[in-house]
Specification:
It is an enzyme of class 3 (hydrolase). By secondary structure, the chain is α/β, with parallel strands linked by helices. It has five helices and 15 strands. The longest helix is centred in the N-terminal third of the chain and has 17 residues, at 27-43.
Length: 257
């Protein structure tokens, strides 16, 4: 199991925000929070692989937006913001060095990885300001023969699909209702009492990581028998980030390792 991460750039405070007002960023605190997040992954058995940092790329810590894993194949995204394209090239170099086959989204398809939620063999693709129908169509063309089903979900209330919904280890989709469009599209849904409670990263068979700013949600999930680790990512939420944004989990065997 590999976790792909990228250290925050010194220009982090210049990262883009869309749905919230800009707040001052404490870079030193952000670096400590990032290191603690990475440590949790490492302690849970994930091998950490870093994309080299680049201080000219303020959003690059959100490495999830650059690549999505589908089994043993990686799909490089195609952000509609040109200033993020160097992030894709950097991620591609590292993924290729691991021996993982790459597929590359091409124009007119536009996509951020934060708009892709995998639940079993279903791939939910959020249609947002960052991700369009052409991207969902390209994914359908590639993934259907590989046994995946792609479902496009319009999203209007959050930056990315995984800003609104993620999934528990058993496949239950969770979300914060004020941010969720078309909740009836999900076969199972559990409403969370806090926005931060809707973002989880599955790190083990019954283990997740979530933000420490959602204690009621953490208690609810522990009552369901889930092993919950809470991390402080407050500096990244100021840039519309969440726990999913800060890593890409590669679960399939990597040929070069």
């Amino acid at each position: 199991m590999i976790a792909l991460v990228r250290r925050p750039a010194t220009s982090l405070a210049d990262g883009m925000v869309t749905f919230i007002e800009r707040s001052p960023i404490d870079l030193e605190l952000a670096l400590r929070q990032w290191a603690a997040y990475v440590a949790v992954l490492q302690q849970s058995g994930w091998q950490i692989v870093e994309v080299p940092p680049d201080d000219a790329l303020p959003d690059s810590v959100f490495v999830e937006d650059t690549v999505v894993m589908f089994g043993d194949v990686a799909v490089l995204t195609n952000p509609n913001r040109p200033q993020r394209h160097p992030e894709i090239r950097d991620t591609a170099t590292v993924v290729e060095s691991l021996g993982i086959p790459l597929l590359r989204l091409e124009d007119p398809a536009a996509m951020d990885g934060g708009d892709v939620l995998k639940v079993g063999r279903t791939v939910y693709v959020g249609l947002t300001a960052s991700t369009n129908q052409a991207a969902a169509d390209q994914l359908t063309q590639w993934l259907t023969p590989r046994g995946w089903t792609v479902v496009a979900i319009p999203l209007t209330k959050a930056l990315h699909l995984k800003s609104a919904v993620t999934a528990l280890p058993d496949g239950t989709i969770i979300g914060y209702l004020p941010l969720v469009d078309e909740v009836e599209r999900y076969p199972t849904f559990l409403a969370m009492p806090e926005e931060g409670g809707s973002h989880v990263v599955v790190i083990g068979e019954n283990a997740i990581v979530m933000s420490s700013d959602a204690p009621e949600s953490a208690a609810l999930l522990r009552d369901r028998g889930i092993d919950v680790t809470e991390v402080d990512i407050g500096e990244f939420t100021k840039l519309e980030g969440c726990v999913t944004c800060l890593s890409v989990r590669i679960r399939e065997a990597v040929p070069s390792l």
